[in-house]
Amino acid sequence: MTSPESASPSRPAKAAGFALLGVAAVALVIGVVSLFSGGSDTPPSAEGSSTPPPATSAAESSPTESSATESSAAPTTESSAPPATTSAAQPPASSAAVALPPVTQPGAPKEPVRVYNNSTIGGLAGKASDEVKANGWTVAGTGNYSQGIIPTTTVYYRPGTAEEASAKELAALLRARVEPRFDGIESSAPGIILIVTNDYQGVSKNK
């Protein structure tokens, strides 16, 4: 059997152990409570307010506005300068290179003319010669034709030569007849022969 003196010291030890266990249990409860209450007790500023956008967000929207400004201003800049491809002040090179056709005198080339008087009017060959020269023909000589009677003022030419077209033009100007050369003047020098008679009318006023 155990004596009463040996059992008494164990009681305070047991009481101290129970006290420590109680303190530990209380501390555990407080810790658990504080753990759960700390997760829900977030500061109002952190829960209710949203973080304002950074200053760069305004800068990020500004390029859109500036690009719109640039796009609206771009047509003004482009319209102020004339297009590079148009040349309103200068004619096309092809039109400048077009050459005008050479100016040609109407009618056939004018062959030299010899004028002979077969009339009773003195100086008629000279008068006719002056009118022929005044209209662009070259008079190669004048004289009298006395080897026959020519019925009317006539311009003669050599068939098959350029004299024919020129003789027809001169005859129309002088309102005279035009015919090929006859035997009496066949061997004369080349050129047109004009034989004037009393019916010579001179240059037509309707030329």
From TrEMBL:
Quote the protein name from its UniProt record.
Answer: LytR cell envelope-related transcriptional attenuator
To which species is this protein native? Lentzea fradiae
What are the boundaries of the signal sequence? none
InterPro entries the record matches: LytR/CpsA/Psr_C
Q: Which Gene3D superfamilies match?
A: 3.30.70.2390
Q: What is the lineage of its organism?
A: Bacteria, Bacillati, Actinomycetota, Actinomycetes, Pseudonocardiales
Q: Report domain LytR/CpsA/Psr regulator C-terminal positions.
A: 112-200
The cross-references to Pfam families, in alphabetical order and at most eight, read: LytR_C
Q: Where is this region: Disordered?
A: 37-114
Compositionally biased residues, Low complexity? 42-102
